[in-house]
Amino acid sequence: MTDLSVNLNVAALLRNRREHPWPDIVDLARIALKEGAAGVTVHPRPDERHTRPGDVWALRNLLDTEFPDRELNVEGYPDARFLSLVHEVRADQVTLVPDDPAQATSDHGWDFRLQCTMLSDVVATLKANGHRVSLFADPDADQMALAALTGADRVELYTGPFGGAHSDSVVEARELEQLASAAAAAEAQSLKINAGHDLTVSGTGKLIARIPSIAEVSIGHALFCDALTFGMAETVRRYLETCGSGPETRRA
């Protein structure tokens, strides 16, 4: 079973275009969680172009009051502002990403050869405060041993190149094997596997079929694109069916 965490940044980006309270990301999160999503993901960037600290707090309140068995995953670069927020909001999982503030989206993982020491210090602090820690990682098998040295619980494998190869079966297969190799190397170091970026329903199915041990996928852009056609509830159900983690499975 692979858990689905619904990334709400796209909905917040749409809301912010007009500075109206809609779409209401708390309402959208509620729909996803009612359908059986394991949690929600946000990435509150410093420029607040999509989710903002206030959104993170509103989602924490939703989880505490209505879905206490689900998780809040907060992504971001580990500067002082971010670390203070995830501590105060009691993020269940903190996913550290190496983003420059100017980046449009996360598009590469950490260089563990260069940043292992810094990450080790951050991971130790976060784990001492009770957070599970995941590190955004390129699908590079050679770096997984270094990732494990940081003390992190998980790596989130960057699936952007795999997702971007949707129209080229040869490239898609090559990228999938690279992800599988990295996952195997991570698991050999006792790291659990998360995955995310540009995962469609079809791509998610192929990924999980090849790497069934994936603990969690975090999906936003493709999910909200599908929601324009199928609606939020039906789209979440489609992803959950692909993940094998619908409400019945969660209760089992």
Structural notes for this entry:
- The chain has 252 residues and is an alpha/beta fold.
- The chain has a single domain (3-251), classed as Aldolase class I (TIM Barrel, Alpha-Beta Barrel).
- The chain has helices at residues 9-16, 25-35, 53-66, 80-88, 112-128, 144-149, 160-164, 169-188, 201-210, 221-230, 232-243, 247-251, and strands at residues 3-7, 39-42, 71-76, 93-96, 132-137, 154-158, 192-196, 216-219.
- Strands 1-2-3-4-5-6-7-8 form an eight-stranded parallel beta barrel, surrounded by six helices.
- Helix 2 packs parallel to helix 3 and helix 10 (221-230) packs across helix 11.
- It is globular.
- The mean pLDDT is 94.
How do the strands and helices of this protein lay out in sequence?
Elements: E1 3-7, H1 9-16, H2 25-35, E2 39-42, H3 53-66, E3 71-76, H4 80-88, E4 93-96, H5 112-128, E5 132-137, H6 144-149, E6 154-158, H7 160-164, H8 169-188, E7 192-196, H9 201-210, E8 216-219, H10 221-230, H11 232-243, H12 247-251
Parallel strand pairs: 1-2, 1-8, 2-3, 3-4, 4-5, 5-6, 6-7, 7-8
Helix pairs in contact: 2-3, 2-11, 9-11, 10-11
